[in-house]
Amino acid sequence: MNKSSGPFLNYWFILVALLYSDLLFSQKEYHNTYLKVLGTLQDGGSPHIGCKKSCCINLSLEEKANRKVTALEIFQPQSEKSLLFEATPDIVSQWETLSYPLHGIFITHAHMGHYSGLLHLGREALGSKNIPVFVMPKMRSFLENNAPWSQLVTLKNIILYNLGHKTSIEPFTNLNITPIRVPHRDEFSETVGYIIRGPNKTVLFVPDIDKWSLWEQNLITLLKEIDLAFIDATFFNSEEVNYRPLSEIPHPLVIETIDYLKNVSADIKNKIYFIHMNHTNPLLNRKSKACKFVLDEGFNVARLGQQFEL
Ligand SMILES: [Zn+2]
Ligand SMILES: [Zn+2]
Ligand SMILES: [Zn+2]
C-alpha cells in the first residue's frame, strides 16, 4: 500500500462508518413501551348494584376509588400515543388517567364490562372523531347492526378495524398485538384474549374464559413463551358462588388455576397477575387470607395503577 494514501483512507473509513451508524440508528428506532393497569374488577364492578354484603358495604373512599372494571393501557412516551384494552363502564375515570391521547381501543367481547364504555364516545357525551376500535368479525357485525352501537359507526365516532384469530397487527412501532379466540359464553360475539408484544416483553391478557381445559391453547405452553399474564380470576373458590350454580358461571376458579399450575416453576407462577375479580372475590382485599395464600403460592394479584415496561 502506498503510504501517501493513508490519510485519505482514514477519511473514507470515518465517512463510511458515520453513514453506516446513521443508517443503523434509523433502522433500529426504539420506542419504550409500557403497560398500566386501569382496572381489575369483573364487569359489574364494586360497589356492586344491589349488594348488601360485606364485600361492598362500608368500603372506604380509597377502596372505592381503587375499584374499576378490568382494563389495560399500553403507551409509548416517544410517540405520545396510548391504546386501551376494553371499553368498560368505568371509562370516564379511566380516560382521565390515560398517559397520552388515545389511538385505539381493543375489545375482547360483547359483555357489558368490556364494551359498554363505547357509549361515552357517542354524540351525547364525548362525540369522538374516528377513534379506531379493533374487533373480531362477529363483534364488528354486532356493533354495526344493533342500536345504539350502530350510531357510533354511522356518525364515525368510532372506526372499526378487523382482527383475525392468531393474526398479528402492529399498531405502533415496536408493538405487536395478536388476538386468540377463547371459549366463553358467546351470546353476541366471539371472545378473544390478546398477546401483546412490546420490544422486550410479551403479555397475555385473558380476562374472561371458561375452563382452561376447554381452550385449544395449552396455558402452560403459552406461559413459557410470555413474560406477564393477566388472567381470569372472576371467582376465588366455589364457596364464593354458592348462591348460583357453577354451570351458569363457567370460569376457572382461582384455586383451580393454582392447582392446575402446581407443578410449574416459581418463575412461571410469578408471571401471573390475577385480574377481573368479582365483587365477592376476597382477592380484592389485600389483607384477606385468600390474598396471602395466592401470594405465598408465588402468584400475583393485579392492582389499579401497576405499571410494567414491556
Ligand atoms: Zn367480563
Ligand atoms: Zn358485593
Ligand atoms: Zn364475559
Structural overview:
The protein has one domain: 4-Layer Sandwich (Metallo-beta-lactamase, Chain A), CATH 3.60.15.10. Helix content is 25%, strand content 22%. The protein has 10 helices and 14 strands. Strand 7 and strand 8 form a beta hairpin. The protein binds zinc ion (3 copies). The site of one zinc ion (ZN) has 8 residues, from loops.
The amount of beta strand, in percent, is 15-25%
Rg from Cα: 23 Å
N-to-C order of helices and strands: HEHEEHEHEHHEEEEEHEHHEHEE
Spatial ordering of strands, largest sheet = 6-5-4-3-2-1-14
* Helix content range: 25-40%
What is the CATH topology descriptor? Metallo-beta-lactamase, Chain A
Q: Biggest sheet, in brief?
A: 7 strands, mixed
Structural class: alpha/beta
Examine the secondary-structure arrangement and name the CATH architecture. Answer: 4-Layer Sandwich
Q: Are any ligands bound, and if so which?
A: zinc ion
